[in-house]
Design a protein that fits this description.
Chain lengths: 130, 169
């Protein structure tokens, strides 16, 4: 019970803090001078301005190579500009992401198999074979 | 964060010395932080990209499951599902697996944006930044092979019947 209360309380505090914008790029930039846009996707190009998207949020960024294809994932550090467009100071693509997703699915399947093979359900609780 | 295969092997490889069920708890503990905190968000993102008008932030509360507070509370809550005879050991080894997960993730470089280790007491974040965030992708297949060989060696040396661990410690 106590663990549940602590967990829910921590989650509520976290959600409130995040909802207040603490992790938004604007808040990060206000604290550190620039923000990290981690694993955003190039959703669109308008001249030299890329629209990066993640989780429903979109950010316009200038200063990235214009030959970056749509759909590529990358991480960018950027400073906010006066016109609402961010200026990139560093970026890196994530070429290993597709493989990482594949490994994630394999890991998920292996974990489910481990749980399925390793557990017996009894009325008193789960019993792990061994 | 490291991939799930790496995390699972980080628990199952030392688990070859422990045997079941401790190895199972250690392995599951090593993957639960990502399964609880990251996988739902990835699934929601996929659904959004497929066109479903889902609001943002649905998975935000789950992020605490990737922090020490969530790992500890999660181990205790999962332990409540386990048979009383195994409960104490299950909680201890799930917790060990979860902390092992964090240790692996802390090795990575996220350009200074580390992990929240003291939430809800503090918003301080930390990472060691020793390896790239995708470095484990290349190590995972090798790690999986070594883990499989370790368990094969265990079965050969110990035998399938006695490969189980002694009663809970």
């Amino acid at each position: 019970m106590a663990a549940g209360v602590v967990l829910v309380g921590s989650a509520v505090l976290w959600s409130s803090w995040v909802a207040g914008g603490a992790l938004h790029p604007e808040a990060e930039a206000a604290r550190d001078g620039e923000a990290l846009l981690s694993l955003y996707t190039v959703d669109a190009w308008h001249d030299d301005i890329a629209t990066l998207g993640k989780g429903g949020r979109e950010v316009a960024v200038r200063g990235l190579p214009t030959d970056l294809p749509l759909g590529v994932e990358l991480s960018v550090t950027a400073r906010p500009g006066q016109d609402g467009v961010w200026q990139a100071t560093w970026f890196a693509t994530a070429p290993g992401r597709p493989a990482k997703r594949y490994l994630g699915l394999v890991g998920l399947g292996a974990s489910a198999l481990l749980l399925g093979l390793g557990v017996q359900r009894r009325p008193e609780g789960w019993v792990f074979r061994g | 964060m490291a991939d799930l295969v790496t995390h699972l092997c980080s628990g199952l490889l030392p688990g070859a010395l422990l045997g079941a069920p401790r190895a199972v708890w250690l392995g599951l503990g090593a993957v639960l932080p990502d399964i609880g905190a990251r996988v739902p968000g990835l699934a929601l993102d996929l659904l959004r990209r497929a066109g479903l008008p889902l609001p943002t932030g649905l998975d935000t509360p789950l992020s605490v499951l990737h922090m020490p507070v969530g790992i500890v509370c999660g181990a205790v809550l999962i332990g409540a599902l386990v048979h009383p005879a195994q409960r104490g050991a299950a909680v201890r080894w799930l917790l060990a697996g979860g902390l092992l997960h964090l240790a692996v993730d802390l090795l990575q470089d996220h350009h200074g944006h580390g992990y929240f280790l003291l939430w809800p007491l503090s918003s301080w974040r930390y990472e060691l930044g020793w390896i790239g965030s995708e470095a484990t992708v290349f190590a995972a297949p090798i790690l999986a092979l070594i883990t499989a060989l370790a368990w094969a060696l265990r079965w050969r040396l110990v035998g399938s019947a006695s490969a189980a661990s002694p009663p809970e410690d």
